[in-house]
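User: Design a sequence. Structure:
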């Protein structure tokens, strides 16, 4: 059976490259049939996984050498029903998937197990859906939206002045103005796209995103958005302490993250209302944020998500709760709920950050968490 390796050489601030070089030598000595795909830019792992499955419909082994972000892309690139055995060699800063399903944290040990797997475990794939009418501007596209808004206003003004424009057109006076009116009309559709969908990055234009570890709306997603931009993360990765950035950023955002009114519907029946939602996190495995057991009851093979919902707590109490997460004692605190369910729909009064496996998924006010129903065969 052929192996396909999707390698992120930049994980661990480039240290993964050295690890992979050693693995590559061992692969060549082993005589196994394998092919390597290297990632350079965001989305490369997703494209690679999709390409592999398209050209090789037979059963195959796809191995991700990287962190949870690289794995997330690969999972989103594997088509439903594809014949795949998935392997993970953790070389990221968090590695919560590997931790959650019992894969060795040492990359070389994980590599040896990939070559000689003892068994395969069927793991759920989570999915976060974004209803179209509630899809909002993603992080990093605000400026483009402002430009689009200005264009939209120009279109509106052009429509309001259509009568004058017709006169100009008939009199053939002010040809330049007439062209502007014509361009404004032609650009009306484009302006609407800017307002609705064009402003989205590739992942935000999608109506859904799959996840292997967790997905969340609110406080912890805001941490993920910020951590990925952080220079501190790059520095900490160099000294092998990359996950500390989540703790440091988390403390900062305790006092910065918005608390909003929210309505949550569990399994389409049970309705919960909160005056101050801090976050709602859908866990497929127990851990997120670099080893935090946010969902201690989560079972990655039960076809359900385990929600951790924090609400109606003061910022000071939120800060005091944080150490309790390390030992999973937070679920016993007032204002913290853990609910295992098949679907969880969240609507918020104001848009909040959303993430899937630590990767930003826009800023939204309506999300639906669940499992896809498919299973991934993971080598152990």
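Assistant: Done.
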């Amino acid at each position: 059976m052929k192996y396909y390796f999707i390698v992120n050489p930049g994980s661990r601030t480039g240290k993964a490259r050295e690890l992979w070089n050693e693995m590559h030598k061992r692969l060549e000595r082993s005589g196994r049939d394998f092919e390597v795909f290297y990632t350079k830019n965001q989305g490369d792992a997703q494209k690679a996984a999709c390409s592999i499955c398209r050209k090789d419909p037979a059963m195959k082994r796809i191995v991700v050498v990287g962190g949870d972000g690289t794995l997330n892309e690969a999972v989103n690139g594997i088509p439903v029903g594809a014949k795949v055995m998935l392997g993970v060699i953790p070389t990221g800063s968090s590695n919560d998937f590997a931790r959650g399903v019992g894969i060795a944290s040492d990359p070389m040990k994980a590599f040896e197990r990939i070559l000689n797997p003892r068994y395969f475990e069927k793991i759920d794939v989570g999915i976060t859906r974004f209803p179209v009418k509630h899809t909002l501007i993603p992080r990093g596209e605000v400026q483009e939206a402002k430009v689009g808004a200005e264009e939209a206003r120009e279109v509106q003004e052009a429509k309001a002045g259509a009568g004058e424009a017709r006169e100009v057109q008939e009199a053939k006076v002010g040809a330049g103005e007439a062209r502007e009116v014509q361009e404004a009309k032609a650009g009306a559709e484009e302006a609407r796209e800017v307002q609705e969908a064009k402003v989205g990055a590739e992942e935000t234009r999608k109506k859904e995103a799959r996840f292997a570890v967790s997905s969340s709306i609110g406080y912890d997603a805001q941490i993920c958005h910020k951590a990925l931009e952080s220079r501190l993360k790059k520095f900490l990765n160099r000294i092998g302490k990359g996950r500390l950035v989540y703790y440091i950023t988390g403390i900062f955002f305790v006092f910065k993250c918005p608390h909003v009114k929210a309505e949550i519907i569990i399994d389409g029946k049970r309705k919960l209302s909160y005056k101050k939602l801090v976050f709602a996190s859908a866990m497929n495995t127990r851990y997120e944020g670099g080893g935090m057991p946010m969902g201690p009851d989560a079972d990655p093979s039960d076809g359900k998500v385990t929600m951790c919902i924090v609400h109606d707590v003061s910022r000071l109490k939120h800060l005091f709760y944080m150490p309790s997460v390390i030992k999973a004692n937070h679920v016993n605190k007032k204002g913290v709920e853990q609910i295992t369910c098949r679907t969880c729909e969240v609507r918020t009064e104001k848009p909040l950050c959303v993430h899937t496996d630590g990767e930003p998924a826009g800023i939204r006010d309506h999300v639906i968490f669940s499992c896809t129903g498919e299973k991934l065969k993971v080598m152990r």
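The chain has a mean pLDDT of 84. The longest strand covers residues 359-379.
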